[in-house]
Amino acid sequence: MIKTKISKILVPLDGSKNSFIGLDKAIYIARQCGATITGIHVVSIYPQHFGDLVTPLKAKLLQDAVKFMEKSKGVCAQNGMVFHHKILYGEAKSEIVDFAKQNKFDLIVMGSRGLGNVKEALLGSISNAIVHKSHVPVLVVK
Length: 142
Fold this sequence. Notes:
five-stranded parallel beta sheet, 44% helix
């Protein structure tokens, strides 16, 4: 049996109830392993044909992301955990997978469904893509 030390956990967050369930599970695992937690959120970049709406929309999405990252920081602090966070722009699936690999995370912990409109039978589309594309182990929490 191969034993791997878990010292860095990445938690994709979108402000949904399920993403906070993922955070709760990550806190539990981190406390058991002495690991650190980093929350990540990816703000989608919208196509140029939306014109003048893009800038205010991106600003609102960033403002929302900052709010739930602060909430996540508070949840971690209440549990004696330090919370780091990163907000990126782009496509969530690829940005999360790339960030986890580049920063050598040991585990990705995430909720099964987020705020996306398209829901699949068992997993959300983002969760499903990350499970299949990530080189880092992924724990999907229901």
